[in-house]
Specification:
Elements lengths: L1 E5 L9 E7 L6 E2 L4 E6 L4 E5 L4 E6 L6 E3 L3 E6 H7 L10 E2 L3 E5 L9 E7 L6 E2 L4 E6 L4 E5 L3 E7 L6 E3 L3 E8 L1 E2 L23 H10 L17 H9 L19 H4 L9 H16 L2 E9 L1 H18 L6 H14 L5 E4 L2 E4 L5 E3 L1 E3 L2 E3 L2 E2 L7 H16 L13 E5 L18 E5 L3 E7 L2 E15 L5 H16 L2 H5 L2
Parallel strand pairs: 22-26, 26-27
Antiparallel strand pairs: 1-8, 2-4, 2-7, 3-6, 4-5, 6-8, 9-18, 10-17, 11-13, 11-16, 12-15, 13-14, 15-17, 19-29, 20-21, 22-25, 23-24, 27-29, 28-29
Helix pairs in contact: 2-3, 7-8, 7-9
Length: 494
């Protein structure tokens, strides 16, 4: 039994295309929806997926051939694939003793290409069990633990503590016991890895043009399947105006230190996380037109409501009612009215986000991290409190994943927990706004001509003045203040 692969509909007024590249050759096994070839028309590049699983048989239209809509491209033989698979399901790999297995650097996350070996938990000659942690890697964003792929003995360590290693590099070699036989096969060379490190094979014509134009995959937004970069994507990126490179910062020389003082100093290398925090904060100041506006809020209403319902809230939901849920809800409420504070700049475009992924800045022993509460605008108080508590614990334990710290659209930073009375928070790029909370302090205020004592908090909104005007920033902060001073506004959505 065979299946025909034909030229798909190419678009309005497009009747023919040229076969640019075949990704498979006759005899290759193929899966459903796996890309077989790429067609180029006058307007776009079109990928042709496999309509069935099987073995690629005859290729009818070779590379360079001009074909019309619905023309026959190739034939897939389904019977050969079925015959190759045993009736009882996929066979399990055989096990062998004494096989050498490479311990590799795992995938580190989107846009992360290297890491530093922080600690080895085992030494050469140590016995190890499958999934036992061998070492810990530090990236720019998180710590990554590397487990043993099998039981056995640790052999040679190839990357010592402090070494910088790339994704997919060899860390060590182990002597396996009952290791899967296919695991002993040599690892693929880095050249065989996908061009962007995400498991997506870009179009060959796109890779060729990237090399010609001197572009990297991380500089291009792919329009193909699963973000695959096509030739037209490269062409558009090459034609886009290039931003002027920022001048390299001039290093500040260290002040002279007396010999007796130098002997009492301690020099510790910055962790990758701390280096990244320093770089990103400085980049934010260099790239954004950052400005901060201030206001103050009377916390009496929130504190009274929290005092009245905190026991019932905890009993029903199993989590304490804190201040962060009030601030998160108040910010989501204000962002609907002032959407530019929830936007970002992409080249010469402003991207407005019709959702709120709220970043919550958390201080940890290794530095500041910002886990993200996704779709916070759709959550209730209990959901927000539970999510913040969960992310806070994972942050302090160093267990946050990359995905949990990416995609935020606005950030809240609470310096008040450390006693801060006033500060100007720095933006978390590419976001355009960050709210700084501070210490609640009893202060005298005037109400209806009388001096009274109220629990007051200073609020600070730092924003990117390139897309947020002063009026919008002040309006946002006033709406947050109004919602907190009268929490009933959040329930009434006014």
């Amino acid at each position: 039994m065979s299946t025909e692969v034909r030229v798909p509909t190419l678009g309005e007024s497009v009747t023919e295309a040229t076969v640019a590249t075949w990704f498979k050759k006759p005899g290759d096994p193929i899966a459903v929806d796996e890309m077989l070839c790429e067609l180029e028309t006058d307007k776009v590049t079109v990928e042709v997926p496999s309509p069935a699983a099987g073995i690629l048989g005859e290729i009818v239209a070779q590379e360079g051939t001009t074909v019309s809509v619905d023309a026959l491209l190739a034939v897939i033989s389904e019977g050969a694939a079925k015959a190759a698979a045993p009736a009882s399901g996929p066979a399990k790999p055989a096990s062998v003793d004494g096989a050498k297995l490479d311990i590799m650097v795992p995938t580190l996350g989107e846009s992360v290409t290297e890491a530093t070996v922080a600690s080895w938990f085992k030494r050469p000659g140590d016995a190890i069990a499958r999934d036992e942690m061998l070492c810990e890697l530090e990236t720019d964003k998180v710590s990554v633990e590397v487990p043993a792929p099998a039981s056995g003995t640790l052999g040679e360590i190839l990357a010592d503590e402090g070494a910088t290693v790339a994704a997919g590099a060899r860390l060590a070699v182990m002597i396996a016991r009952d290791a899967p036989q296919d695991s002993a096969a040599p690892s693929p060379s880095p050249a065989a890895a996908p061009a962007n490190g995400k498991g997506i094979e870009h179009a060959p014509s796109a890779r060729k043009m990237m090399a010609e134009k001197g572009l990297r995959p991380d500089q291009i937004t792919g329009s193909g399947r699963d973000g695959r970069i096509m030739k037209d994507d490269v062409r558009r990126a090459a034609q886009a105006p290039k931003p002027e490179p920022a001048p390299a910062p001039t290093p500040v020389p260290r002040a002279p230190v007396a010999a007796e003082d130098e002997a009492r100093e301690e020099r510790v290398r910055m962790t990758r996380l701390r280096q990244t925090i320093a770089r990103r904060l400085k980049d934010a100041q260099n790239s954004a037109a950052m400005l901060t506006t201030y206001n103050e809020v009377d916390m009496s209403g929130v504190m009274a409501l929290r005092r009245e319902y905190k026991d019932l809230f905890e009993k029903k939901h199993g989590v304490k009612l804190g201040f962060m849920s009030f601030f998160t809800k108040a910010c989501c409420h204000a962002l609907r009215e002032v959407p530019e504070v929830n936007a970002e700049i992409d080249g010469t475009d402003i991207v407005y986000k019709n959702f709120v992924h709220m970043g919550i800045a958390v201080g940890t022993p290794t530095g500041l991290v910002v886990p993200v509460v996704r779709n916070a605008d759709q959550m209730g108080f209990a959901e927000i409190e539970k999510k913040i508590a969960e992310l806070g614990i994972r942050a302090r334990d160093g267990k946050l994943s990359m995905s949990e710290m990416q995609g935020g659209t606005f950030t809240i930073s609470n310096g008040g927990v450390y006693g801060s009375l006033m500060s100007s928070p720095i933006l978390n790029p590419p976001q355009s706004g960050i709210l700084g909370m501070h210490k609640i302090q009893d202060r005298p205020v005037v109400e209806t001509g009388q001096i009274v004592i109220r629990p007051m908090m200073y609020l600070a909104l730092s924003y990117d003045h390139r897309i947020v005007d002063g009026k919008g920033a002040v309006t946002f902060l006033v709406r947050v203040k109004e919602a907190l001073e009268d929490p009933r506004r959040l329930l009434m959505d006014i």
